[in-house]
Amino acid sequence: PFEVLVIGGGPAGVAASVYTARKGIRTGIAAERFGGQLNDTLGIENLPGTEYTEGPKLVADLERQVAAHDAIDAMNLAQASRLVPAREAGDWHEVHMENGAVLKARSLILSTGARWRALGVPGEQELRNKGVAYCPHCDGPLFKGKRVAVIGGGNSGVEAAIDLAGIVGHVTLIEYDGQLRADEVLQKKLRSLSNVDILTSAQTTRIAGKDKVSGLTWKHRESGQEHDLELEGVFVQIGLVPNTEWLKDSGIALSRHGEIEVDARGGTSVPGVFAAGDCTTTPYKQIVVAMGEGSKAALSAFDYLIRNESA
Ligand code: FAD
Question: Is 36 in the pocket of ligand 1 (CB under 6 A)?
Fold first, then answer.
């Protein structure tokens, strides 16, 4: 058993484990994929103190920092499937793993992050990785010189369109709303690109293709008129979903979007269970925010442990 068990090995979970280890606390960290979303990130330029780094490099740095602490027991490719909270403060919480193992700890830090949201139209699932993509940094180069659509006009969609415009032949950005929602500076950049078309009030209704994507259909939301676009790739950029389905019957309070509700100290609705990063209600899903929240949750777990002797 662990004193603190961290579930999730992204920036939030790693920061938490380093903080608890430095308090001399025996810490476990279990992650389905160590590094989390950083694995899919290319350039990072907004991490204070680090002018420029890349996702995979930051993952390697975090891995090294975790390995340097004897107090941390790291478990990669370890997926949690169920949480059974302690009956009373100071008692053991149980985390049931997909492989059948049961991990016990007196305090938990949940940092399971988030993932891309799917569009939910015919053709999307069938053509996933056959032209339907979610990560422009990972898959953009596969569409060199080709025609693609980016669905979603928020920051991630517009960033993706700008990024892809430099690699692919042509980009059509499709936004459901009447206007783009991305920061003005990004929109300005997007409009300056000669190989980008922008469609607004446009609802994507179908992705077409047999073995690979050959086009999509969109409906103008005011006129109701349907249009077909011929293209080879579709990048879906319509937001993030928290990885909290496994907490459904745990008694941990979730928001209506499925985010773990946390207080100012990272505390959840269950004593001794803390949470941090993109899986929580804390706004601004960013690396430095996740790291800060992870550190905070770790200090709160420490505080909990010294106040609640083992039952
Ligand atoms: P995540 O990074 O999502 O990590 C979650 C961890 O939990 C992973 O290890 C995952 O495998 C694990 N996990 C999930 N479910 C389970 C389970 N059931 N059991 C066990 N483990 C589980 N932010 C910036 O600040 N700057 C940027 O430039 C930037 N660029 C980005 C580019 C892209 C393409 C993406 C996708 C994100 C970007 N972000 C950026 C956002 C940033 O990556 C996230 O805010 C940050 O990674 C959140 O950290 P996290 O630890 O909360 O979650």
Answer: yes
261 three-class SS = coil
Report the distance separating Cα 66 and Cα 13, nearest Å.
10
Structure tokens given for 51: 């002018």
Contact present, 31 and 111 (Cβ < 8 Å): no
Residue 40: the pLDDT is 78
d(CA 4, CA 302): 8
Distance, in Å, from the CA atom of 168 to the CA atom of 132, rounded to the nearest integer, reads 15
Q: pTM value?
A: 0.83
Low-confidence residues of the chain: pLDDT under 70: 310-311
Q: Is 80 in the pocket of ligand 1 (CB under 6 A)?
A: yes
For ligand 1, the distance from its centroid to the CA atom of residue 286, given in whole angstroms, is 8
pLDDT of residue 212: 97
Taking CA atoms, 145 is separated from 104, 127, 161, 195, 230, in Å, by 52, 20, 14, 11, 14
- Tokens at 114, concatenated: 């988030």
For residue range 87-144, list pLDDT tens digits in order.
988 899 999 999 999 999 999 999 999 998 999 999 999 998 899 998 887 789 889 9
Q: Which atom belonging to ligand 1 lies closest to the Cα atom of 136? A: 34
Whose CA is closest to atom 15 on ligand 1? 112
Pairing relationship of beta strands 132-133 and 233-236 according to DSSP bridges: parallel
Give me the pLDDT at residue 310, please. Answer: 65
Residue 18's H or E segment, with its range, is helix 11-22
Assess whether the C-beta atom of 215 lies below 6 angstroms from ligand 1.
no
Residue 30 CA to residue 302 CA, distance in Å, equals 19
Ligand 1 in contact with 198 (CB < 6 A)? no
